[in-house]
Amino acid sequence: MSEETDAADDTTHHAFWADDVADEIEARDPEEPVVIKGGVSPSGVAHLGNFNEIMRGYFVAAVLRERGHEVRQVFTSDDKDPLRKLPRKLADADGNIVGLGEVDAGALGRNLGKPYTSIPDPFGEEDSYAAHFAALLKADAERLDVPVEMISNTELYENGDFDPVVEHVLANIENANEVLSEYQSKVDADYVPFNPVCAECGKITETVTSVDIEAGTVEYVCTDMTVGDNTIDGCGHEGTATFREGKLPWRFEWPGQWQVLGVDFEPFGKDHAEGSWPSGKDIAENVLGIEPPVPMVYEWFTLNGEALSSSAGNIVTVGEMLELLEPEVLRYFFALNPRKARDLDLTRLDQLVDDFDRFERAYFGDVEDENLTRFAERAYPFVVEEVREDRIRLPFTFAAVLGMTDDEDLRIKMARNEGFFDDETPEAVIDEALNRVERARHWAEKMDNQFNYRLQVELPEFDFDPAVEDALDDLADFVADGHDGEEIQGEIYETARRHDIEMGDFFAAGYRLFFDDTQGPRLGEFLGELEQDFVVKRLRREE
């Protein structure tokens, strides 16, 4: 089953999965606005994996808005969490991935154990490390035209939004701990589910010695925090913190967000489905007394066959992807069935683009695939900024071939020769079609693949033997007679044999003329893509 048709399989009622989720939400008769949430802890690079929840939520929000609902899509930054370890990679304000050696890493190292909002931005641009991370996600959402509201957990605490939740959990601590003990081993008679921020050193501490519900405060001792095999030292300070000067542990904080924000739907990865969701649902129902939101578990996608991992460096940002793909292709990737695992192989982005192009053609009735057509008819309007039939999509690999030259006139001639443009094609449509060329060129450069060569518009310097020159003239005559790339490729071999020339020497001569190099793509097929007169003149060594 193709990547497109798997989004409209027999396991769903609707052709588009977002309609099924919208049905579940509507079945609860939610109050307006319907609240759709995602969230992340700002622990490292804001990468494409973090964008799963934003995009899954976006499609559900779009369907609900189409049905007449007011929708609020929010994304929480769990920025009152403590920085537990140094990330290996960060992303600058433009989304470019950098190492710690390129920033003020000390700003992070000196602040282990402190909330992300209390840590300086290592790039020195935003108010905090957390604000830098949130700005990246917000910029990515804007790049993909997703209207999402970024919410700081720190601000929810500071503004008092969390006060009722914290007060309820601590006032019912026996019940809260009894429910939590089903999911967490370190719950004893002294456990208090609240983590104050130490007034002396600014670190999060987990040791609360007493609670005063009426005053809205806790007494605490700043003790050490264990992170894996490492220890973040506490300062030993004994103090008092209000409910606004600390945070709930994650298993309480997540359902607390549902209550504070009135969340109706939240997608999350399968890691939460196996861990945090069961406890969150239990705490919501049996501690907070609220109905948990409609859940949707999505499969994580892999990158180049491996799990996304900031620590291992196997990540890619939205900004980096948009250097390689149009926004609508990336939105299409997230529109596919979220319950199906898939791999984003950067070396084969041409396949993803081809799938998108076929998906687009299916919407306009040009593909004989019933499942794909049903899926496209429903999902395509949510994927593109504007539904228009006059677009021309150049195949991605052909766009990469056009990217071998900077000469726009030559690009247009080559596309015209392949039948993509004609005399009636509007200039604006041509310009839009050629936008793909620069992205395909960046892909070729990034992957250093068979398209990563530069066509020489001016005749390079050369020094060929007479036999090679005669063979080039014969090949020029063959091209002038009108043949496709596959036929030209075969003729290159035949011409070399007729002139008793080493095959490698003849190919090297061709590469010298067109690339000023000794190697390149499959020469005959490439020449078949070029403008015929240009190829003939170049083979004849004419300016």
TrEMBL record:
Q: What class of enzyme is it?
A: ligase
Give Gene Ontology CC terms: cytoplasm
Q: Which residues form the signal peptide?
A: none
Q: Which UniProt key words apply to this protein?
A: Aminoacyl-tRNA synthetase, ATP-binding, Cytoplasm, Ligase, Nucleotide-binding, Protein biosynthesis
Q: Which InterPro entries match?
A: aa-tRNA-synth_I_codon-bd_sub2, aa_tRNA-synth_I_cd-bd_sf, Lys-tRNA-ligase, Lys-tRNA-ligase_SC_fold, Rossmann-like_a/b/a_fold
Q: Drop me one GO molecular function for this one.
A: ATP binding
**Which E.C. number(s) belong to this protein?**
6.1.1.6
Q: Which GO terms describe its biological process?
A: lysyl-tRNA aminoacylation
For this chain, the family text in UniProt reads: Belongs to the class-I aminoacyl-tRNA synthetase family.
* Name assigned to this protein: Lysine--tRNA ligase
Q: Which gene encodes it?
A: lysS
